[in-house]
C-alpha cells in the first residue's frame, strides 16, 4: 500500500481568510487535525491519539499562499517510528498540483511500531534548529481567555485549530504593539505573513480551563520578524504550548516582503529578546 | 391558528458570505435547521426529528440574493399530510427579506415515510415554485473526488449528529473543488470576476454521521449549458461505500459586477465537458 494517502479534500472559505488576505493559520491546523486523525485511524493509532498523554510538535513551511476559493487537499504519511512517531502532511493546491505547505509532525515518546511498508519518504524541507531566548522575562501579554465549546476537538479537549487561533490573536496583539495596527494594515497595505512555524503542544486544556499567552520578538530583520508565543496556565504557570513564528511584513498588493517603516522598526527593537547563540 | 409561523429572524453577517460575494448556501441551511426544529416543536414532532431514521429531502429555489448585512426572517408551515393520510411529512419554508417583504428563497422539504400526520387546520397552501424532476446520473464513473474529512464537533446539530449546515458546508467545498477542476480557480475568480452562483438545489439526506466519522464526496456535471452548470455531489462513507447524502446543484457562472449570468469561457467549457456524465 502507498504510504502517502489523501486525508482531507476541501477548500479555503472566504470567512477563513484574515487581514493578510489569505487562508489563516488556525484553519490550516483545522484541516491538519482532521488529516492527522484520518491517518491515525488508517495506521490503527486512533485510540493512541484519543488517549493523548504525549507532546505533539509541528514544523511547518508555508511555500505558497492559499486564498479564498482555493481548492486543496492534504496527503499524509507516517515517516518513522521508534522513540517518537513522525508524521508528514503535504497541503496540495488541487488546481495546480503544487505543494503549498509542508507539515512535519512528531508525537514525542509515542512508541508505536508500524509496518515498514507504511513508512513514507519525506520529500519536504529540512527544519533547522533556531536559537532560543535566554529568558522569557521580556515577553509582553498578548492573549488570555478560557477554552470555549467551539475550541474542542473530536476528543473533547482543546484542539489544534482552537490552540492556533489563540496564537493568531496573540500575533495580532503583538503586531499592534509594534505599530501593525488594523488602521495601519488598511492604510499602508502592509501586514504580517508567516512562512515558517515551530509548534509544540505539551498539554491539552479542557473546556473552561484558563490560559494566557505572552509574546516576544526573537529576530528582527529588514523585512522579517520572528514572534515567540508562550501559552501557559495562569494559575500554575505551567507551559501549555509554544509557537515560534517566522514571517515577513508583506506588501498586500505586490504579495512581496516589504521593509519595516522606521517607526515600526524602533518599536520592534524595544521588544527584541536576548537570545542564546 | 395561522399555519405559516415565523420560525427564525436574523441577519447575514459578513463572515458568512463567500467568493461569489453573497450569503453562502450552507448558512441558509444553518437557519433552516433552526426553523425546522422550531416548526417541529410547534407541531409536536420534535421527538420524531430528534430520532431521525427517515430520509429528508430539500428542494430549494433561490430567487434573489442575500448580501452581507441583509435582514431576513423565515416563515414555515406543514404542507401535508392531514390526519389519517400516509406518505410522510411535507414542510415549507420561505425566506423573506425583512426590509422589502419579498420572498428570496423557497424550501420545499420532505420527511419521506415519517409516520406522522398534522391537524387539518395546521396545513398550509404552498405558494412557492414547483420543482420539476431532474435526470440523475446513470453512472458516477466519471465523478472526481471533491471533499474528504471527518465530522468535527462544530458541525454537530442540537441532536448531536452531523447537522444539515455542516453537511452542506462539505458540499460547498465539493463545489469549489469541482469548480477549480474546470478552471474556476481562486485566481480566475479574482481576476476574471466570475464565480459560480446556485439558483436551485436538490438535497437528499439518507443517513447522518456521528462525531469523528469519515466521509468523502465525489462530484460530476449532469448538465452543461451556455452559462449554466448542474453539479451532482455524492457523499459516501469511505469505509462502506454507503451513500449518505446527495446534492444536485444547479447554477450559473455569474458576472460578479453585473450580477448576471455570463457564458463560460471556451477553456472552461472544454474542461467542464470532461466531467459531464450520462443521465437518465
Largest sheet of chain B: 11 strands, antiparallel
CATH class of the largest domain in chain A reads Alpha Beta
CATH architecture call of the largest domain in chain B: Roll
Annotation field: number of helices of chain B: 5
Got a strand count of chain B?
11
* Average pLDDT rating of chain A: 96
The percent range for strand residues of chain A is 25-35%
Second-tier CATH architecture of the largest domain in chain A: Roll
Average pLDDT value of chain B? 95
Order of helices and strands of chain A: EHHEEEEEHHEEEEEH
- Quickly name the level 1 CATH class of the largest domain in chain B: Alpha Beta
Percent in helix of chain A: 10-25%
Q: How many individual domains of chain B?
A: 2
Beta-strand content bin of chain B = 35-45%
Poorly predicted segments of chain A: none
What does this 3D model show about the protein?
The complex is a heterodimer of chains A (277) and B (280). Chain A contains five helices and eleven strands, in the order βααβββββααβββββα. By secondary structure, chain A is an alpha+beta fold. In chain A, strands 1, 2, 3, 4, 5, 6, 7, 8, 9, 10 and 11 form an eleven-stranded antiparallel sheet that branches. In chain A, helix 1 runs antiparallel to helix 3. Chain B has 280 residues and is α+β, with helices and mostly antiparallel strands. Chain B has two domains: 1-131, Hotdog Thioesterase (Thiol Ester Dehydrase, Chain A, Roll); 138-280, Hotdog Thioesterase (Thiol Ester Dehydrase, Chain A), CATH 3.10.129. Chain B has helices spanning 25-42, 46-51, 164-181, 186-192, 266-273, and strands spanning 5-11, 55-62, 71-80, 89-97, 103-112, 144-150, 194-205, 214-224, 228-236, 243-255, 260-261. In chain B, strand 3 (71-80) and strand 4 form a beta hairpin. In chain B, helix 1 (25-42) packs antiparallel against helix 3 (164-181). At the A-B interface, strand 1 and helix 1 of A face strand 6, helix 3, helix 4 and strand 8 of B.
